[in-house]
Amino acid sequence: MLTLFHHPMSTGSRYARLILNEYDIEVELIEENSWSRRKEFLALNPAGTLPVLLAEGDVPVAGATVISEYIDETRGALKRSRRLFPEDSLNRAEVRRLVDWFLIKFENEVTRHMARERIFKLHMTAEQGGGAPDSTAIRAARANITQHMKYIDWLTATRNWLAGPTPSYADMAAAASISILDYLGEIKWAEYKAARDWYTRMKSRPSFRPLLSDRVRGLPPSSHYGDLDF
């Protein structure tokens, strides 16, 4: 069995979990607080970042996009019509572009700040950077949500799925990001009908159900977080 070191409110971790679930890959989940910098975890990934997958032979595969490429190369072709990475090179390029958008741009402009200020700091010591949320960082992240949601709304209004006619890694990356903000009640869904319809379809997928069960100690989710129909 594979093992995934993750955190429930880490975008990359959620992305990896969704892919593993989509491909029906049995995996043991080990929750890791990356800010603790455990020496055992650093031995697996000296960068100290999540997620990390212990693959065959307990070889560590570190990083969300690296894990997704590894899973596609070792399992994707066997899934045929359920494969989350297109066969065509140009379609693959579009999927990769959108994965980068959500795991890098969206993460750096929105999700990372929201998760750190509203979630992670609750469980950090002062020496680890815990304490009161930085209101300036939260305001900046909230200001950036609007443009990102408008882009998602446009994509979902013009395509069946984010990168084309079938679900792909792009949808998994976007849903991983959005789900953290949705947990925190940060998205005004009434303003983004097409995005809301797409996210409803994502939430209804069996692969998404374990994520809807995630809870943060001391911080309950928004009232509609686990509701498949909002």
UniProtKB/TrEMBL annotation:
Stored PROSITE patterns: GST_CTER (PS50405), GST_NTER (PS50404)
Residue ranges annotated for the GST N-terminal domain, each copy included: 1-79
S-adenosyl-L-methionine as UniProt keyword: no
This protein's UniProt keywords: Transferase
Record EC number: 2.5.1.18
All copies of domain GST C-terminal, residue ranges: 88-222
UniProt GO molecular function: glutathione transferase activity
One Pfam family of this chain: GST_N_2
InterPro entries for the chain: Glutathione-S-Trfase_C-like (IPR010987), Glutathione-S-Trfase_C_sf (IPR036282), Glutathione_S-Trfase (IPR040079), Glutathione_S-Trfase_N (IPR004045), GST_C (IPR004046), Thioredoxin-like_sf (IPR036249)
Subunit description: Homodimer.
Protein name as annotated: Glutathione S-transferase
Species annotation: Phyllobacterium myrsinacearum
High-level lineage: Bacteria, Pseudomonadati, Pseudomonadota, Alphaproteobacteria, Hyphomicrobiales
